[in-house]
Amino acid sequence: MQMNISRAKGTKDIFFDDMKIWEYVEENIKDICLKHNINQIRTPIFEDTTLFSRSVGDETDIVNKEMYTFLDKGNRSITLRPELTAGVVRAYIENGFSSMPTPIKLWYIGTMYRYEKMQKGRYREFSQFGIEVFGSDSYLADIEVISVANELFKKLKLSDAIALKINSIGCTVCRAKYIDTLKGYLADKIENMCDDCKTRYVKNPMRIIDCKQDKCKSAKQNLPMITDYLCDDCSKDFESLKSTLSEVGIEFEIDKTIVRGLDYYNKTVFEFISKDLGLAVGGGGRYDTLVEVLGGTHTPAIGFGLGMDRIILLLKENNLVSNPKNVDVYFTVFNSNIFPKVYKLINDLRDLGYIIDIDICNRSFNAQMKYANKIKAKYICIIGEDELEEKVCSLKNMNTSQQVKVKMLAEEIDNILKGGN
Fold first, then answer.
1. Are residues 146 and 278 located together in one domain of the fold?
2. Helix (H) or strand (E) holding 392
3. In sequence order, what are the residues at sequence separation of 6 or more whose Cβ sits closer than 8 angstroms to the Cβ of residue 259?
4. Each residue of 117-167: pLDDT tens digit?
5. Are 266 and 171 in contact (CB under 8 A)?
6. Which domain holds residue 410?
7. Do 213 and 279 share a structural domain?
8. pTM score > 0.85 for this model?
9. CB 39 within 8 A of CB 105
C-alpha cells in the first residue's frame, strides 16, 4: 500500500536556490555579529514549560493558546520553544555568565514553534535571528542592539523597505501610574470589548493597546499613552535614545501603540515593519527584570528577534535575491576508470575555493554535457584516455564556447578561471 505522507501544516522544506538565499543571509549575520564582538549561542529546542510561563507571561496568547507543550516519559511538562530570549536568559543564569566581564553579548539563529494562525511569511515552525545583551542599563546598549539590525538591512539592501518604530513603556514605577489611568479610561468601555481584552483589563491592561480585534478599535481611539506618563529617568532615557539614533543616522518613527506581546519588556521597545507589506519583520526591547524573575541576580538586558522567513520573503518581493553560486567546473569523464585518477586535481581545485562537480552516474558523454548545461556550470573540463595519458585536459568556457587545453594542474586551471578566458 502506497503511503502519502506530507509535511506538517505550518512547516516548510528549504532546498536548492532557497537554501542558498538562507545561507547568504546567515553569512551576513555572522559577519556583522563578529564585527560587533557578539558571540554565538545555541540553546535546546525544548525547555521546561515553567521557563516560558514565568518569563513570557501566563496571560499572553503565546502561553495560553500557541505553545507546543507535552509530558515526556518522565511525566515532566516540556515545551518546544516559542521564543528564544527566555532560553538564553536561562543559559545566562545556569552557566554563570554573570561572573564574566560585562557586557555579555550573544547572538543566535534558531527554530521556534507556535500553534498560531498562519500568515504571509509566518509559519508554525519558524526561524529567528536575534541578539541579547546583558549587563548595561545605558541607552547606548539600545543603540548598539538596534544598529546591528540596521546594518543587516543595509547589507541586504532592505533599508528602504523596512521602517524602525520605537516607543518607551517605562519602568515599573511610571507604568503603575499609567495603568491606573488606562483602567480608569476603559472602565465604562471594557464590557463592549473582546473576551481577551476583558481578561487583559484585570491581568495586564497594557496588552489591550496591542489588540487587533475590530470591536475594540473604537474604544481605543483616544487612549492615554504611556509616553505622557514617563517618570523623569525614563523620559530622559527615551530622549537620549531618540537624539542618538538621529545623530548616528538611523531613521525611526515614534509609535506610541507599541507595547510588544511579551510581559517581560520595559522602557525601550521597538519593531521593524515592512513598508509595503505592512508585516512585522521583528522587534525587541529592554527586559531589565527578567534575569531576576528567573532566579538570577538583577541584570539589565536588551535584545531583539527578527523573522528569518520574512527577511527571505522581503528579499524576494523586492527582487534583491543575490545570484546563487553555480558550479565553477564540471568534470566530464569518458569512463569510470578515469574518476580516481583525476580526483586529486578536483580536490586541489576545491581547496582553492572553487565549486567542482563530476559525473557519478556513469552517464554518456552527451548526457554529461546536457547535465552541465542544466546546472549552469561555468566551465566544463573534458578528460579522456588520451588527455589523461598526456596529462592535459580540455577546458571549455560555457559562456563563450572557447575551449583550450591546459596541463592537469590546479594552478594552471586556476589561472584560466581567474582570467575568465
1. yes
2. strand 392-397
3. 167, 169, 206, 207, 209, 210, 226, 265, 269
4. 888 888 999 999 999 999 999 999 999 999 999 999 999 999 999 999 999
5. yes
6. 329-419
7. no
8. yes
9. yes
